[in-house]
Amino acid sequence: MLDTNLIEDEVPSIGVVRDRPRWRSHIQLARGLAPTPRPWLLLLLTGVAFGPYGLGILSDRVLTVLDPAVSAALATLGAFVGMEIDVRRLRRSSLLLGGSVEALVTLLTVAAGMMVAIRAVPDPSVTIPWLLAVLLGICAASSAAPPPSPETETRIGGSDDLLPIVLGLPALAVMRSATPGEIGTLTLGFTLVALAVAVACWLLVSRTSSVTEERVFALGGLLLLGGAAAYLSLSSLFAGFAAGILWRAAGSEVRDRITRDLGYLQRPVVGLLLLVAGAKLHVAMTFIGLIALYVLCRLAGKFAGRLLGRRFFEQHEPHEVSPLSPGIVGVAFALNVVQVRPQDEIATTLFTVVVLGSLASDLASLLIREPEPAP
User: Fold this and answer.
1) Rounded-to-integer distance, Cα 101 and Cα 95, Å
2) Residue 64 CB: number of other CB atoms within 10 A?
3) Virtual torsion, Cα 235, 237, 238, 243, nearest 10 deg
């Protein structure tokens, strides 16, 4: 409902318990934390049943028509993650540092394990084995974020998703060009394009008094971000992420307006991405060993990264969601890669391993209980 005015920016307080800001509830739900447990498994299976290898409702032609909507949905998901990050508190966030350490350890563990497996059983269709290993590590690094409690509502969110999204842009740039100069130019140029679109959207939204126009400008900005990423074969997730950071830094008024407009997309975004991911999934028996190794390496990396993060950074994080649960960002990035590089064998291998590996990791998170930290 749109019956609330703009809320004030959150202010740290001691001993004061407040309701969670509504905009933060929108963000957490859009990142896959729906009210019902594990709904994304059902959505993925529904996508498989409706896809070209099932009933054919989501045929290849329909999936092609949905590509622009998928790009916009990826940008929207990235924007929600970016709007959780308050750049004014980066230096004081042990949670962000600990989450980034956990993500980095997981990324390196999975990349190393996948590289050993790919070299042991070489596939001539995979032209750049190390790139596939790194992309698998990037997808494995993210986790489902636990919802913030009233005591921790001012914390910086997206701690496990920051590193994978940021590294995803140069990784996709490598798939377009092999020279460091061109990779750097693509990365920097695309970042400037995303920020320019975000600034234009910010100015348009902040200067309109009509709710309808405000919503059109916000959605139009996300469509433009997703379209630019698809045209350049780069990361729609990063484009939305950069815009989200800028909108959060612009102040509470811009943040609240845009989040109110995007709040209507929270369930459609998650549903669309998972349905399309399921429809694009094609299981091959040759990937079974790689998927099993991916899951094992991810579990090992998550445990090691969590222990290392707790060793060096004091973290006070709710534990409603296990860090072993992959969330949606990793699947979304794999979908982003296969969308912009549909004929690339690296992209198709990555997508199959990540989607099935995420399902297995999510089931493992239900069976494996992480030990509680010592008080």
Assistant:
1) 10
2) 10
3) 130
370, 322 contact by CB (below 8 A): yes
Q: Which residues contact 369 (CB under 8 A, 6 or more apart)?
A: 322
Query: How is residue 284 written in tokens?
Result: 């091959």
CA dist., res. 249 & res. 45, Å (int): 38
pLDDT in tens, 247-285: 888 777 777 777 777 777 777 888 888 888 888 887 777
d(CA 204, CA 6): 17
- Place 56 in a pLDDT band, splitting at 50, 70 and 90: confident
As given in the structure block, the two tokens for residue 357 are 């590996």
Nearest Cα to Cα of residue 236 among 344, 100, 337:
337
- CA-CA distance, 233 to 134, in Å (whole number)? 18
For residue 217, give every residue at least 6 positions away whose Cβ sits within 8 Å of its Cβ, in sequence order, or none: 201, 204, 205, 208
pLDDT computed for residue 89 by the predictor: 64
Structure tokens at 307: 């222990």
Tens digits of residue pLDDT in 148-204 = 444 443 333 456 788 889 999 999 998 887 788 888 888 999 999 999 998 888 888
- In this structure, are residues 273 and 344 in contact, taking their beta carbons and an 8 Å threshold? no
Spatial separation of the C-alpha atoms in residues 133 and 28, rounded to whole Å: 29
Q: How far is CA 166 from the centre of its chain?
A: 10
pLDDT of residue 110: 92
Give CB contacts under 8 A, 24+ apart, made by 176-181: 176/233, 176/234
Question: Rounded to an integer, what distance in angstroms lies between the CA atom of residue 298 and that of residue 168?
Answer: 18
Ordered domains of the chain (ranges, CATH): 22-367 (1.20.1530.20)
- Tokens 């949670």: give the residue: 95
Reduced to 3 states (helix: H, G, I; strand: E, B; else coil), residue 15 is coil
Distance CA 110, CA 304 (A): 12
Which of the four pLDDT bands, split at 50, 70 and 90, describes residue 57?
Answer: confident
Q: Quick one: pLDDT band at residue 312, thresholds 50, 70, 90?
A: low
Amino acid at 312: F
Dihedral, CA of residue 303, residue 308, residue 313 and residue 317, to nearest 10: 0
